[in-house]
User: Which sequence fits this backbone?
């Protein structure tokens, strides 16, 4: 059921001992890897992992990077220069490199030992989306090298995810329209999450709000909230609180309870409101970030519409040198 | 030269094999640990490490946490309930726990196997400050278990750091006053850094600006800047750019160059402007965060003064249940 490209990587992982996984990308491509770091932390008995922005990875140059490392990289157009450089750096150090990209003929594809070309369309089964591929690789590795038993359930659940996502998006439309109308004049909107979902909070803050809407933002970790950030909460401060289904849900529920007590502009996006159908309960926590991301994309569309500020508008990106 | 309490931990590390270090705390206490994660990544050939907010650590419950883990925790008053719970959780899993606190008779001190009571005063040699103790533990571990050779140089340099810090603070006063006057009406101030310094950018954003000044903020990673956040840069947006002395300085210089080209409110705090005296060049990158933190504390004082908003003002912290 998995693609030939993913299959080739898993085959290589039968032969090659991995001690450490590095998840390396920038911005939105990095954000989609956070859930895999969570999964590795929860599941891996021996294999260690770290997540870095590509430039940080190259300059930090971890001493542990070497032949027993698996470096997974991602760039949509495959042209992100920092990520291309990271792939080259990792190969030079003898690491196994696997890149995810939408462009088969791109610098990142050429710089990496293995390439997986993903799609982000409507395809069903949902196995060739970058979030899905990340889990196929990570759980594939854990299955092969540590005998982790969640692999089959996870792949089966990913394969069935498309209708869940479509229904969740449909369901979210009305609330998203309301969000767009209510916050079209907002100067700042915070996002909050924890565990497997933090990356989605980060993505919405930096890619949607800051990049595509020019609205100030910051993805606050729900557990860190009470150790500084919560002091900025006034009645009118908008906070989007994500509620996922992983083990850290109590952390998110706690920050939400506080925000709702003292704030009046708290938006809740709860993965539990979704019709999960036949998806196995044991892996819903890992899949929740994918659902939350699709739902938040609807929020992004409605915000852009209400503000008459298309999501494609840029000041600097791809326009000026940087 | 090291305290008896640090000595006892290092003695235990002669006997106990460590595979993984967990750095666990909340807010400002967590922020001061980021530099140690950087040092571990740069220096450790075998030992892995991760940094978590305390609640995230407890609920995430990493599968690798066990008898070969060293968990370093920190809480100033030793009462942070999430961190106390984290210490208990780690001990239950058989890990070696070491807590840093200002209060010898506190719940955290009682919950941990080893306790190091730090001071934050004017003491010279500068060896009993929490930042210093973090490095004593981390480089002590690397020295004992991996034969890392920077330990002696680092301890000698830490011991001599006090005059460097005092001079840096004195030198910063005029610029800090100017900063306070210029930005006393600011609604949002971003901070930016990378590598060993990112934790200081994070601390200034969440503990000083958000918590103590009720100013919106977000610590942007200098490498991530170009992948979303930079789109919010307009002429009047204030950004504090840290420049450290570690390997990632080019990342920070790149974000600064862009900000200075399109922004007019860019504040630079450069560890290179400091008189480092006899401090060995090979460890200045690791010590730069400590210097930057002391300098930014002066900025915090002057901002509070200019705004007539004392750093001790709180809306919620220690006042309402959360």
Assistant:
């Amino acid at each position: 059921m998995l693609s030939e490209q993913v299959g080739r990587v898993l085959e290589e992982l039968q032969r090659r001992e991995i001690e450490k996984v590095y998840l390396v990308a920038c911005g939105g491509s990095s954000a989609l890897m956070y859930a895999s770091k969570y999964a590795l932390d929860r599941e891996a008995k021996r294999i260690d992992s770290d997540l870095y922005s590509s430039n940080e990875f190259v300059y930090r140059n971890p001493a542990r990077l070497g032949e027993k490392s698996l470096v997974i990289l991602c760039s949509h157009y495959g042209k992100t220069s920092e990520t291309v450089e990271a792939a080259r750096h990792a190969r030079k150090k003898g690491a196994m490199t696997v890149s995810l990209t939408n462009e088969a003929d791109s610098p990142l594809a050429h710089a990496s030992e293995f390439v997986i070309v993903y799609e982000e369309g409507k395809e069903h089964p949902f196995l060739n989306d970058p979030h899905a591929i990340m889990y196929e690789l990570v759980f594939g590795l854990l299955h092969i090298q540590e005998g982790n038993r969640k692999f089959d359930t996870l792949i089966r659940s990913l394969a069935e995810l498309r209708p869940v996502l479509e229904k969740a998006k449909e369901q979210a439309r009305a609330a998203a329209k309301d969000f767009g109308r209510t916050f079209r004049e907002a100067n700042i909107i915070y996002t909050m999450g924890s565990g497997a979902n933090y990356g989605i909070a980060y993505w919405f803050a930096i890619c949607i709000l800051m990049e595509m809407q020019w609205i100030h933002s910051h993805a606050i970790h729900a557990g860190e909230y009470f150790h500084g950030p919560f002091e900025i909460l006034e009645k009118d401060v908008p906070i989007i609180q994500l509620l996922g289904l992983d083990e850290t849900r109590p952390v998110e529920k706690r920050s939400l309870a506080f925000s709702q007590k003292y704030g009046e502009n708290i938006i809740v996006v709860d993965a539990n409101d979704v019709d999960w159908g036949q998806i196995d309960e044991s892996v819903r926590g890992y899949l929740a970030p994918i659902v939350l991301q699709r739902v938040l994309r609807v929020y992004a569309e409605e915000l852009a519409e209400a503000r008459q500020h298309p999501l494609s508008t840029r000041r600097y990106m791809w326009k000026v040198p940087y």
In short: The first strand of chain A starts at residue 20 and ends at 25. Chain A touches chain B through 64 residues (CB under 8 Å). Chain A is about 50% helix and 15% strand.
